[in-house]
Fold this protein.
Amino acid sequence: MIDLKLLRSDPDSVRESLRKRGSDVKIDALIELDARHRELLQAFEAAKAEQNLANKKIAESPPDERDRAIVAMRKLSDRIKVFENNLNGVKAELDRILAQVPNLVDPAAPDGAGDESNVVLRQVGDPQEFDFTPRDHLAIGELLDVIDMPRAVKVSGTRFGLLKGDGAILEMSLMRFALDRVAAEGFVPCIPPVLVRGAALFGTGFFPFEEEEAYAIPADDLYLAGTSEVALASMHAEESLNLAELPRRYSGFSSCFRREAGTYGKDTRGIIRLHQFEKVEMFSFTDPERSQEEHEKILGIEESLFQALEVPYRVVDICAGDLGAPYSRKFDIEAWLPGAARWLEVTSCSNALDYQARRLGIRTRVGDENIPVHTLNGTALTGRAIVSIFENHQQEDGSVVIPEALRSYTGFEAIKASHTP
């Protein structure tokens, strides 16, 4: 959550950030609640101090004055209860509204409200020209008999996929390839829980903003996580991290689950937008002064992965209105899909500054002061990498050549068609 001290000292910067995002949170109401809360807190603390002094006087009073002092004390206790009830009510409303305020937008993020306002920073690699009509990833997967959507639908319904044979091997190879690459950059591999508490989703800023995206398990008060970022961030909740040990980096391999609410009709073909997918995620805790440097590092790792996969891509600076609520700045990598003739988001990396750390109570000590750390995340690889490999490395006969960097993981150099198309 945002720093209330900033709201008090510079409310206009918060208003401007909300304007850029298109948020309808009422900042003036929040400022009034904060002032009312501080006023009530001051009155409550003054009454408690008066109560402590009165208790001391009762103990020291002669017996003939003690009864009057006790009656006065009871009246004071009643006042304190009223103060406390009012204070708790105002605090609950303050917290409720404060929880709905998204992170402040980095001034360097582009203005705008949607995809059309995102800014392409650079393109790496030229789209390949084929001397045949390229297929899209699903046509390739069906031809190779490694993607089976009808049976996935039979088992689980729409927006589920089934990889089999060399397709399944390729996915597992991609995940291990990503884990090895990011481990070499200092990210400690983890396999975190995929069932998380609501407090973890609130702490990372996904609740209350994206509750409709989460699969709930009401009987156990748990949720299926849409990203291992939730578990990786929350495992240090209410901890103080040693400044000398920052940045602390983790990589998480997990299945991820998203309801994809509000995406009706979007990316329904193939394995692009599924309710369940596998992912290797990078997550960093760092001191504020190294936050931007860490963001650039994560983006550089993501780029190196797609360079190794020999897939043309571009880096996109995400506009203010398209940022997720917890994030101040975000970059996407989009891969070129020759079969679909479009760019596809395949990874993203985001800087949450101290927003998540404030909600989760994660801090570090700098000099005499305890301050929130900064948190950053970035996708290493998901199953969308298969989409980009299939479309960019396809051959006329329907086979797919495996990028050289992956061959020691797959154990084969190509996935070959079982029959000639």
About this structure: The radius of gyration is 27 Å. The longest helix spans residues 63-98.
